[in-house]
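Sat 14:20. Reprocessing the chain from the morning session after the first attempt stalled halfway. Input below, unchanged.
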Amino acid sequence: MQPESPPRRPLLVANWKMNGLHGDGLARASALAHHAASGDCAGDIVVCPPATLLFALRAVFAGTRIALGGQDCHVSAEGAHTGDVSAAMLADAGCAYVIVGHSERRASHGESNAWVAGKSAAAHAAGLTAIVCVGESAAERDAGRALAVIGRQVEDSLPAGATPGNTAIAYEPVWAIGSGRTPGPADIEAAHAEVRSGWERQFSGSGAALRVLYGGSVTARNAGDILDAPGVDGVLVGGASLSADAFWQICQACR
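Finished this time. Tokens:
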């Protein structure tokens, strides 16, 4: 009989997106650090603020259980890339994680699967865990192509060096982000199973240790049901993470 795989420790990620000036960012981070010091959560907590706040929040989260993450990185370690941030710079600022391939960047910046794979490789080279985002549009779901799109994105957005230790995958249905709508439990389970299958096709090995997160209109109200869905190993939270209290309630929903 094969031994059972150890349980995957949930990953709870706050993506602040382009929100937070110095004062309110520090206040939000301090409130979350206070929650984390006094409360209980069964998962790993990551906060991904705007790049302008990274060094300030590094000090706030020092000595706490909260890790710091970037919202994006460039494929190159350095160079003539005005306005971009490299993975090495994120590591230097105290980051342990970085989000790559978010649907907002795929749409507004034209990022291809290959480009996302390059960013993931850059993250790994800098010692960061890449949180790779995949997900279908409303049109793709309505056409019955959701699982095919997800599988292709997984297979084409991961570099050769990806492992369950340096990579997590976030399933974010594009139509759910910021809409207040979420897929049903069966749809989430099917999508996460396809993510794991795509990983296994790409790397010819078991995806049992891979952490697969759900993202898209996660709130304190629905987080418990989402986290209880089979195959869900955490959440990537947008709008609800802008409230320290709401995000902590999501963290506490992790069982």
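Residues 134 and 153 are 6 Å apart (CA to CA).
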